[in-house]
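Final report, section 2: Outcomes. Of the targets proposed, Transcriptional cofactor Bfc domain-containing protein is the one most frequently requested by collaborating groups, and we therefore present its record in full.
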Amino acid sequence: MDKAENRSKLADNFLYMLEFVVDDLLITRPNLCAPEEYPTCTEITFRSIFLNIRDRENGSCVSPCSPKTGKCTLFTLDSPITDEDVMHIHVYKKRTESCKFLLGLTELPMKPIFDRVKKEFDSRNINWEENVISHVSRLPKLRGPCKKASDCICYERNRERREQWCPTSELTKRMLPLFNLCKMQTGNIVLILRLVCNGPSVVSSFPVQSPRCCPCQASWPVPCTSPFDPCDPCKSVKTKSK
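The predicted structure is given below as tokens.
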């Protein structure tokens, strides 16, 4: 594996944080089927991210002095950002997940924002990729030969681990038009968004397999067939009522 491929994987495994605030919401063409007493909720979807931001109002007038509502999330990217990556924004009058009425939807392209934040990170953290690769190459190995001759320099004061990178961010405020499924504009939403790039992530995503109680079973949960069955996931003695 060459250095270029190593660098690509390091950049793809960055740890990001997204913060959202619904600064203002104006519905000019209301959904007449939506009950006014239902709270207004903004659902934000981007790749594996899903956030539900409940608005300040509950069927009553919004006070401009009330605090803004928002949320934030940490995530990594499982593949590089492309032009097809957009943030989907849906505004509903929602009571539950199965009982909601669409007020409007819109999209926000994300690649330009990611590109600017990543470019600033590279400019503020010069040679960060070479520093990470150099640090990983000097880590002790469980198997195989280790370079013990260089271990002593790790105790010198100028040999701290260079992993506290300078994070970079971009704060943007966008007014986006909302449309219904009939392609009619229903209003506008003002969204404050901040994207933070923290550099190489500490933990990356990994697949999780379903646990198995023992090799004799191929499914989970394992059915409880006997009070003393070693494959019983409950691991408790079951008694029949007399």
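Residues 22-110+189-197 form a domain with the Immunoglobulin-like fold (CATH 2.60.40).
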